[in-house]
């Protein structure tokens, strides 16, 4: 397990909340189909829906930078220490075996995992399979996973082509995008897509079409013309 030991299971952790989410008006419709009559309607949420999302990936791939970019809309160069004052709790277990059980406990608790590699680092990409193995072992089976190839602004140092990321994501049936914590490209989209998926799962009515996270991401990418300069 030499490779796993070098992975440094460092996780940034944040929660997303949806204040006063109301179900679609169709839920209150008087017309009740047979399937609706048999299936109890989803609960009405007057309170916030809180979801836990963890950022995972090798040390230095940019987890904290991504979180800071999402939270503050800016890039702060240089490495962060384990905890930064941005109102989120950052968990940094620094590969120490004695903290493994803590990390695993957080997997179990997570609703979503943003799994990062660095497009300039082949080893961080190669370790993704090991991360996925660990995730599948410890996380809930329905956890939302998204693969992110970060540092997309560093095209001259690129070690992993975008289609390699896409292929790996397809193999594991997870959505994928390249991000840059530096330029901010796709950062909001990554977090928003995961949040939307979780929200729809929570308030989804069985008779409604499912939210398609892949389609949402592709549509948003096209809208923003985000990736044309990679
Ligand atoms: N050019 C560029 N540099 C980045 C990007 N994201 C992070 N970095 C840099 O990469 C280094 C590591 O970033 P961190 O955010 O500390 O990475 P981390 O994954 O949280 O690292 P650990 O805390 O060790 O797990 C820092 O020097 C960042 O400034 C990016 O998108 N583009």
What would you note in describing this structure?
With 230 residues, this protein is α/β, with parallel strands linked by helices. The protein has one domain (48-204, 213-222): 3-Layer(aba) Sandwich (Rossmann fold), CATH 3.40.50. The protein is 37% helix and 17% strand. It contains nine helices and six strands, in the order H-E-H-E-H-E-H-E-H-H-E-H-E-H-H. It has a six-stranded mixed β-sheet with strand order 3-1-2-4-5-6, sandwiched between helices. Helix 7 (162-171) links the parallel strand 5 (144-150) and strand 6 (176-178). Helix 8 runs antiparallel to helix 9. The longest helix is centred in the C-terminal third of the chain and has 17 residues, at 187-203. It is globular. The relative contact order is 0.17. The model is unreliable at 1-6, 8-12, 16-37, 82-89 and 91-97 (pLDDT under 50). It binds guanosine-5'-triphosphate. This is RAB37, member RAS onco family. GO terms for molecular function: GTP binding; GTPase activity. Residues 21-44 are annotated as: Disordered. InterPro entries: P-loop_NTPase, Small_GTP-bd, Small_GTPase. It holds the Pfam family Ras.
